[in-house]
Prior knowledge:
heterodimer; A: mainly alpha; 5 helices; elongated; B: alpha/beta; Rossmann fold; Arc Repressor Mutant, subunit A; three-stranded antiparallel β-sheet
Amino acid sequence: MGNQVVPSMLRNRYVDSFPIKAEALSGALNAVETKLDAVQVRGLRELAHKLAGSAGMYGFDDLGLLAREIVRSIDSGAPISIIGGYTRELVGHLQRTPVKLPG
Amino acid sequence: MRIDLLEDDPDQAEMISHWLTEEGHEVRWYRSGGDLTRALHRDVPDVLLLDWVLPESSGMDVLTWVRQSFLGRIPVVFITAQDSEEHVVAALQAGADDYLVKPPRRRELMARVQAVGRRAGAIMTAETLQGTDPYNVDIGRRVISLKGKTVELTSKEFDLAAYMFANAGRLVKRGVLLERVWGRSQTITTRTVDAHISRIRKKLEIDEGNGWRLISVYQHGYRLERA
């Protein structure tokens, strides 16, 4: 996954979406922590699920692995503290925006 | 090949489309099962790539619909984050031709798409098509024989017949035949396709006596299938 050649234009566009993704994840986690119900959890899971699918394709394997951990911990019924820990870590990664490629 | 992609995430759809178009494929992207099935009524692709988890109908719903429809045998590949053995088995048992766990790796995805396309006849690489008895379709020599006797065909008639045999069991749109055999010529119409279909049916004696039928599917196209 990580050795795939990703065109800089596509990669940069993906990186540009990191702040939005981080905000969406934070919002979803906040909703889960405020009101723990199936709808809120599903919202967080969907965001993580999409990131788990896309991150590796764009060369961000570490983000993909973290996102997958969120999905797995939700699916296995892990405590909210575990889910929250993974989500905050992922948000932190997204906020440390990687260097964009020229072109 | 013409490839339809069902994927609700624009990030993933963009990269997969990029990979496929770089390899010379034509990609149409759909975000929902409803959009895709509506499009399939108009035009049938060579390969279908399906995500499993979608906001409305799932990839499995689409696969079930495709396999029960009149569309014939479209090769279907799942690209999904569902990585359990149960999911893989369920998809294959429901009629999927292959299964990739996300995130897909570029070269592997390309190889699998090529493989299902080849198996389905969308890519003609074999010198002689298999499973066409009592016909022998020799792509290399551009000759079709029936029970060992060569049938005289024009170049276009051969191309058309070979394409239909390569896609036996699948609904092939008139527009697809036009594009594949005549190369999107502005002066050729679908009536030309109909006329050529009629000629190859007659010349090749495609009938129940020879174990095949070439049927017209109203407003859609043609399907060559075992009688």
